[in-house]
Amino acid sequence: MLDADRDHEFRSMRAVAREIFRHALAEASIAKAFARHVHCERGVLQICEDLYDLQSYSRLLVLSIGKAGHTMVEALAERVGASAIEGIVASSVVPSSQVRGFRYFRGGHPTPNAESIQAAGATLRALQAQTQASLVIFLLSGGGSSIMEKPIDDEISLDDLIATYRALVHSGAPIAEINTIRKHLSATKGGRLAQAAFPAQQVSLLVSDVPDSTPDALASGPTMPDSSTAEDCYRIAAKYDLLQQFPVATQELFERQALEETPKSDDQAFHRSRWWPVLSSQTAVEEAIAAARAAGFTAYVDNSCDDWDYERAAEYLLDRVRVLRRETERVCLISGGEVTVKVSNGGVGGRNQQFALACAKEIAGENITVLSAGTDGVDGNSPAAGAVCDGSTAARALAKGLDVSSGLSRFDAYPLFSALGDTIETGPTGNNLRDLRILLAY
């Protein structure tokens, strides 16, 4: 049983961690990013450093793909005017309202569904109708890989596609390697939407949930030259023993080494294409730093555990914050990016809650608080975005008949955190800037 003072201190620090996350989420918004980077005056559209005279195009088509699909269209309509744009929105989030002139599809995530296929078909048909006098604006955000999808091989059914995605997501592979395979199996990824849009003028606005060094991994790079190859796919499949996990139709493509190569940077589709990142994980990290400093903490950033296994990442970041705490009285360590979890059996949770539970096991009794949550508001198969834990989590769980180690081994973190009132529940945010990990030591 915790004494009243210790309990109050732990509660207070959990509240501070939540406030830092809330501030970062609010300030790293799509509306604010578009206000900074997109302007329209007298029929001239400015996107970052580019200018487009809208009167010089016979048609303006907007295609918005990903978890932030609707939010990005709303932000563009606010800058340009809703009457000036039309197109397609494919998102996993059901919007409270729709922008007039747009067809909406609710694609699946993390695996495709029937509307993912329908969205891809509608998009490809719309792009193939464009001419050299058209301007196509792509609005791309995370989750687009499954939200809009069409297999490049007609032998691959929707069920095959879902099974393939499931094998990839549960493999423990980093997102860049997962997307390498997705690109080569898809008629919409790895630059193939740009090919479909040729010869139209094209510009892509990116709200990124991938590392800044690999922008073509965002939504599996539908409008960008692909830096990966079919040979990379065969290597990755062997590395994670994926062939035995793939359905027969996908397996046969790999066994025959029959994957089609994706378009590279010399393809004519990219001669009139531009790409602009308008929002990324770095924005959320910077806003979290500002909030931590405002709360009286000395703030540090360490993103080096991006794509690490969650246990390794937890050990590394906890060691780091303990060292920093010896030097400064109140320390906040911010870490952006994503950790990986290789799921061997199915409980309820996600990578953020699994990471937080791993930390809870290691910090029992310590004055350390850890929050880990997704900026999209979704963590795995749970209704939460993530969770917050501290030195009291293990003891409070035990008092309720719950065991941290058991939750970890069963990948069942959500029920434990939910029982403690320590889940982070925002609902889908309409944004997607990767995950934030906030570690407080005091």
User: Approximately what portion of the residues adopt beta-strand conformation?
Assistant: 15-25%
The multimeric state of the shown protein is: single chain
Major beta sheet summary: 6 strands, parallel
Which outline best applies? Answer: globular
Q: Predict the CATH topology of the largest domain.
A: Rossmann fold
Write the layout of secondary structure elements.
Elements: H1 4-27, H2 30-37, E1 38-41, E2 44-47, E3 50-53, E4 59-65, H3 69-80, E5 87-91, E6 102-106, H4 114-128, E7 134-141, H5 144-147, H6 158-169, H7 175-185, H8 192-197, E8 201-207, H9 230-239, H10 248-255, E9 273-279, H11 281-294, E10 298-301, H12 310-327, E11 331-337, H13 351-362, E12 368-374, E13 386-390, H14 393-399, H15 404-409, H16 413-420, E14 423-424, E15 435-441
Parallel strand pairs: 4-5, 4-7, 5-6, 7-8, 8-9, 10-11
Antiparallel strand pairs: 1-2, 2-3, 11-15, 12-13, 12-15, 13-14
What keywords describe this structure?
alpha/beta, 6-stranded parallel sheet, 442 residues, globular, glycerate kinase, domain 1, Rossmann fold, 2 domains, 6-stranded mixed sheet
